[in-house]
Design brief:
228 residues, globular, alpha/beta
Length: 228
C-alpha cells in the first residue's frame, strides 16, 4: 500500500492515498443473511458507497420534486465528498505493509513523526465521533417508520460504519503495520510550490500530480491547503 506525505502548506503535511473507486468493505454480500447487525450495516454501507459515487458522476439537470428526495440527494453528495477523505484509513485495516513516500528534503524521522501524529489524531477523532453518531443512529430509528426516504438513517448508517472502519484503520496503522519510508523528489517540488504565487503554485501542484500519476491528488492538496 502506497501512502504519500503531501505538503498542503509550507510546513504542513497530510497523508494521502489514492484508491480505486467503488471498492467495498470486506463483508461478502452473500454472507450477510447469516451474520449479525454489523454485517448488515456494512452491506448497507457498501450500497451507499456505490450509490454515492454513481451520483457524483451523474449530471442531474433538475432536482427531485419532494423535499425528502432533495434531502436524500444532498446527503448522497455529502457522502461522496467524505469517501475520499476516509479511504486511506479504511484500507489500512487490511494492508499487510505500507510505504510512506515523503518529500526528499524532509528528514526521515520527522516524516515518521508527522505520519504517526496524523494517525493518532485521526484515531482519537473517529473514536469520539463514532460514539456520537451511534447515538444519532439509534435516535433516527423511529424516523424509519415514516413513509419516504429515511435521510437521517441513511446518513447515520454511513457515518457510523465509516467512523468505525476509519478508527480501526488508524489504530492498525499506528501499532500493527510495518512502514517503509522512501524519499520522493516530486513531493519536495510540491512542498516548494507553496513559495510561488497562486497561479504558478496551481500549475506546479498539477504537474507533480501528473508526474506521480495521481490524478486526484491536486484537488486534495488545493482543498486542504491553507491560504498563504
Amino acid at each position: 500500500m502506497d501512502v504519500y506525505l503531501v505538503a498542503v502548506g509550507p510546513d504542513r503535511f497530510e497523508c494521502y492515498y489514492e484508491a480505486e473507486e467503488q471498492e467495498e468493505t470486506d463483508e461478502p454480500a452473500g454472507a450477510v443473511a447469516h451474520q449479525g447487525f454489523l454485517a448488515r450495516m456494512r452491506a448497507k454501507f457498501n450500497e451507499q458507497l456505490r450509490d454515492a459515487e454513481q451520483a457524483r458522476h451523474e449530471q442531474r439537470v433538475e432536482e427531485p420534486a419532494s423535499f425528502l428526495a432533495r434531502m436524500q440527494q444532498r446527503a448522497m453528495r455529502w457522502i461522496a465528498e467524505r469517501i475520499a477523505e476516509q479511504r486511506l484509513l479504511w484500507h489500512l485495516r487490511k494492508a499487510p505493509a505500507a510505504t510512506l513516500y515523503t518529500p526528499s528534503d524532509l528528514p526521515r524521522d520527522q516524516a515518521d513523526t508527522i505520519m504517526r501524529a496524523s494517525l493518532k489524531r485521526d484515531a482519537d477523532s473517529h473514536r469520539n465521533r463514532l460514539v456520537v453518531h451511534t447515538l444519532g443512529l439509534l435516535i433516527s430509528i423511529p424516523v424509519a417508520l415514516v413513509p419516504g426516504p429515511n435521510v437521517l438513517g441513511y446518513l447515520f448508517t454511513f457515518t457510523v460504519v465509516g467512523h468505525y472502519l476509519a478508527w480501526r484503520g488508524a489504530v492498525r496503522g499506528l501499532h500493527e503495520i510495518p512502514w517503509t519510508i522512501e524519499p520522493c523528489p516530486p513531493l519536495a517540488d510540491l512542498r516548494h510550490a507553496f513559495s510561488l504565487d497562486a497561479s504558478s503554485r496551481h500549475q506546479a501542484i498539477h504537474a507533480v500530480a501528473a508526474r506521480l500519476r495521481l490524478p486526484r491528488m491536486a484537488t486534495f492538496v488545493e482543498q486542504m491547503s491553507v491560504p498563504i
